[in-house]
Write a structure and sequence with these properties.
Elements lengths: L12 E10 L2 E11 L4 E5 L6 H8 L7 E6 L2 E2 L4 H6 L1 E4 L11 H11 L4 H14 L15 H12 L6 E5 L7 H17 L3 E6 L10 E6 L2 E6 L1 H8 L2 E7 L2 H10 L4 E2 L5 E5 L3 H10 L3 E8 L2 H9 L10 H4 L13
Parallel strand pairs: 3-8, 3-9, 6-7, 7-8
Antiparallel strand pairs: 1-2, 1-4, 4-5, 9-10, 11-13, 11-14, 12-13
Helix pairs in contact: 3-4, 7-10
The chain binds adenosine-5'-triphosphate and magnesium ion.
């Protein structure tokens, strides 16, 4: 039997050859992944990439068809209870009890995980302070806003001895401020506790401050590394062009056969060579209606790895100025 010290072993999460099919759909295709302890790691991928399937396998509610996985050194198939003991989860679908108060939701969770009552009370105070919900302690959950509910779910994942927390799209559908606050808490957690945070998202602007990003598409991990390393290895300059008319469009495509057409009917031209912009401007400068230059961002990393954009349009102005709040940029030690 494995010793309890296994929780300190590296990596915090290890997946080997994990495969999962739903009928004809191959949701995960022999995934191998190591995630080192005490990091904030983003799983970045579009709808249907396999992010939720991967997290459901890690939290042992879904069995893989093939492969092996460990959480904090515990085999999720052979030692699921031990693996779960040190795992906190925030599911994609809300899972609070609306008819209970904030406090009751947290207390019930602590009871299920057999946290002794004195420690439970202490932890409830701590986590409510962390997510700034102390004043809402006795409030019924149904009266909270979506952002507050998401914050409460994060608090709940921390009531027991979590070493690894999995968060499935914790910020989706939230306003910009609520999103920023959630990332603040994750950054704060990362600095103040020995905890590994694995968070799925399809908001590319959110992952810049993470320690690592895993890019997932069609059930495969395409790349893993710090945002900086990913940009250095896979980043390309991207010209985002709206041709002035059909003739210009046809000529650009003829000259740049690798151009990718996105859903907004823009042509995306990628190159590792900065000279490309000059060449393009010289030939087509007067024949484009709009031109944006994207210099080796994570969006361009996704584009060069998949041939598609992660989002159909660039972030709107408000989202572009999305910041990581007052604790921003503090993810790394
Ligand atoms: N219960 C299911 N039955 C059948 N197909 C499923 C089921 N769950 C997921 N799939 C399919 O498996 C693939 C991966 O789905 P998954 O939910 O893991 O993706 P995701 O990356 O979490 O997407 P999203 O960003 O939309 O949450 C998709 O093609 C999806 O349609
Ligand atoms: Mg999902």
């Amino acid at each position: 039997m494995q010793a309890e010290e296994a929780i300190y072993s590296e990596p915090a999460v290890r997946l080997r050859n994990i495969t999962k099919r739903y009928g004809e759909t191959l949701a995960l295709d022999a995934v191998n992944l190591d995630i080192a302890a005490n990091q904030v790691v983003a799983l970045l991928g579009p709808n249907g990439a396999g992010k939720t399937t991967l997290l459901h396998i890690l939290c042992t509610i879904l069995q893989p068809d093939n492969g092996a996985a460990e959480i904090s050194g515990f085999d999720i198939l052979r030692q699921p209870l031990k693996a779960r003991k040190h795992l906190g989860v925030v599911f994609q679908e809300p899972s609070l009890d609306d008819r209970l108060s904030v406090y009751e939701n947290l207390d019930f969770h602590g009871l299920v995980y057999q946290v002794p009552w004195r420690l439970r009370r202490q932890r409830i105070d701590e986590v409510l302070a962390l997510v700034e919900l102390e004043e809402w302690r006795e409030e019924m959950v149904r009266s909270l806003s979506s952002g507050m509910k998401r914050r409460l779910e994060i608090a709940r994942a921390l009531i027991h001895d979590s070493r690894v927390i999995l968060l499935d799209e914790p910020t989706v559908g939230l306003d910009v401020q609520s999103r920023a606050r959630i990332w603040e808490y994750l950054g704060y957690l990362r600095r103040t506790r020995e905890i590994t945070v694995i968070v799925t998202t399809h908001y590319i602007d959110e992952v810049e401050e993470c320690d690592e990003v895993c890019i997932i598409d069609k059930g495969t991990i395409l790349a893993q590394g710090s945002p900086q390393a990913l940009k250095q290895t896979h980043g390309r300059q991207v010209l985002r062009v709206t041709p002035r008319d059909q003739a210009a469009d046809a000529e650009i495509v003829a000259l740049f056969p690798d151009a990718i057409r996105n859903k907004s009917d823009q042509l995306l031209l990628q190159s590792a060579n900065p000279q490309m912009i000059d060449d393009f401007l010289q030939q087509f400068g007067t024949r484009v209606r709009q031109l944006d230059i994207d210099t080796a961002s994570l969006e361009s990393v996704f584009l060069s790895l998949t041939g598609r954009e992660l989002r159909d349009k660039p972030a709107d102005a408000r989202e572009k100025t999305f910041a990581f709040g007052r604790r921003g940029g503090d993810f790394k030690r």
